[in-house]
């Protein structure tokens, strides 16, 4: 039986008040996001925002020499395009699909208008933005102070929290780009996790076999981010 998707698979959309949902729902467009697709480049004007349901999108800061490092990831807990309601018209990061899946696209102006109504949607989006900023700060600290395998565990666990299954579709090169590392370093870290029986890796696909094992191996950064999302968006736990 084919999968049945709906916009409220995205938790922010599911948390909208009924009146807000009714104003926005007619303009939501379901789209498929293939692995590696670039949604925004740094400096692009934002025409649409995206509410992932089964896809995961990585926000990357790209250096002049082409090197990149992950700032944060967004999945079914959030949206891509917060600059629309935070006072900017462009994004300073690249948004690239980390794990293929579905999202719902909405015109930027429609979300901006809803935000400026000043109702429950505004408060929801501001709380989400604060949680996202906390994740960005923790990611920067993790990338500076923790080992490659700890960073990989953090990335895998955060991704799992945003997916309905234990399988992630992503390549080692994409992971390396996200973490700002060379591919051999990521390969070594992935092999350590596989040898420990925590994951099974094949090209383009990672299956998590032992989540509790990953949680024991990961640094404190994963728990810090999760606590902040639970504090600011407690309703996410009930969805």
TrEMBL record:
Q: Which domain of life is it from?
A: Bacteria
Keyword match Transcription: yes
Give the species: Paraburkholderia megapolitana
Q: Which GO terms describe its cellular component?
A: cytosol
Give this protein's Gene Ontology molecular function annotations: DNA binding; DNA-binding transcription factor activity; kinase activity
Q: Which CDD domains match?
A: CAP_ED (cd00038)
**What keywords are assigned to this protein?**
DNA-binding, Kinase, Transcription, Transcription regulation, Transferase
Q: Does the keyword DNA-binding apply?
A: yes
The record, for InterPro entries, names: cNMP-bd_dom, cNMP-bd_dom_sf, Env_Response_Regulators, HTH_CRP, RmlC-like_jellyroll, WH_DNA-bd_sf
SMART domains given for it? cNMP
Q: What is this protein called?
A: cAMP-binding domain of CRP or a regulatory subunit of cAMP-dependent protein kinases
């Amino acid at each position: 039986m084919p999968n049945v998707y709906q916009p409220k698979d995205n938790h922010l959309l599911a948390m909208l008040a009924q009146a807000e949902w009714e104003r926005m729902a007619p303009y939501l467009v379901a789209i498929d996001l293939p692995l590696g697709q670039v949604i925004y480049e740094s400096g692009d004007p934002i025409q649409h925002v995206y509410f992932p349901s089964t896809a995961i999108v990585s926000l990357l800061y790209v250096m002049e020499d082409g090197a990149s490092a992950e700032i944060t990831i967004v999945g079914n807990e959030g949206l891509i395009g917060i600059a629309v309601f935070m006072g900017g018209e462009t994004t300073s990061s690249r948004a690239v699909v980390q794990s293929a899946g579905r999202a719902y696209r909405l015109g930027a102006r429609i979300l901006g208008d809803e935000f400026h109504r000043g109702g429950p949607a505004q408060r929801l989006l501001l709380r989400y933005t604060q949680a996202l900023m906390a994740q960005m700060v923790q990611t920067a600290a993790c990338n500076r102070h923790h080992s490659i395998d700890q960073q990989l565990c953090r990335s895998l666990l955060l991704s799992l929290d945003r997916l309905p299954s234990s399988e992630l579709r992503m390549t080692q090169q994409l992971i390396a780009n996200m973490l700002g590392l060379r591919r051999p370093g990521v390969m070594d870290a992935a092999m350590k996790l596989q040898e420990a029986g925590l994951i099974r890796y094949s090209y383009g696909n990672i299956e998590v076999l032992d989540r509790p094992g990953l949680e024991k191996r990961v640094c404190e950064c994963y728990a810090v981010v999760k606590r902040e999302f639970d504090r600011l968006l407690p309703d996410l736990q009930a969805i």
